[in-house]
Amino acid sequence: MAVSDLWIGPLSLLKYAVIGAFAFALVGLILALRKARSFGERKSYALAVGSESAGIRYAFVEGMMPWEKDSARQHIATYVAGVIYHIGIFAAFLLLLLSLAPPQTGQFWNAILVAPVIAGCLTGFGLLIKRISTRYLRAISHPDDFLANLLVDIFLLAAAVAIYEPDLTPLLHISAILLLLYLPLGKIRHCCFFFVSRVTFGKYFGRRGVLPHDQAGA
Fold first, then answer.
1. What is the pTM of this model?
2. What is the C-alpha to C-alpha distance for residues 218 and 209, in angstroms, rounded to an integer?
3. What angle do CA 98, 31, 120 make, to 5 degrees?
4. Tens-digit pLDDT profile for residues 25-64
5. Residues 6 or more apart from 102 whose CB is under 8 A from it?
6. Residue of 2, 62, 114, 158 with fewest CB within 10 Å of its CB?
7. pLDDT at 1
8. Rounded CA separation 168/19 (Å)
């Protein structure tokens, strides 16, 4: 096999490696979720005075708005940067998936994805610099915080480079492999536990009649 065969062809060696890393990440997240679920769910004996479904809806809609969170309300710029960052991550993963599926998508998707990918890359590095340069953030940060941010930022950078230089798409695949292998091991696994925690939060406080706030005590 020629060296060029590593990244040339409908399913190159690097593409197989990306698919394998996807599988590893998926299995790792499932096992982590099963471990968390193994502790069981505490039964509530109090009578329900609210709606679990309304609480869940609040947790994913109104509860995500900055004015519903003290920290986000006080740091709007960081909140907006975080939103842009995550949109960029989703766009980069879409670009990655499209790069694995023949035929090549050409310029159409590149034109759509380039703006969110670049914006996500810039905000990602900006958030990393803020964490490093801000004393109190640096003091409460774990090495995992820096590594996770850096791996995602490199992935976004590689996605942006691949859009402008398709011949460098292997860099996107390599960065994706590193990110996916780390995904179930560090804080990036919040991509899964975010949804679990929001559902749990919404169910509990919705049932207690605390959420949504406008219905509390009704």
1. 0.84
2. 8
3. 40
4. 999 999 999 988 888 777 777 787 888 888 899 989 888 8
5. 10
6. 2
7. 46
8. 18
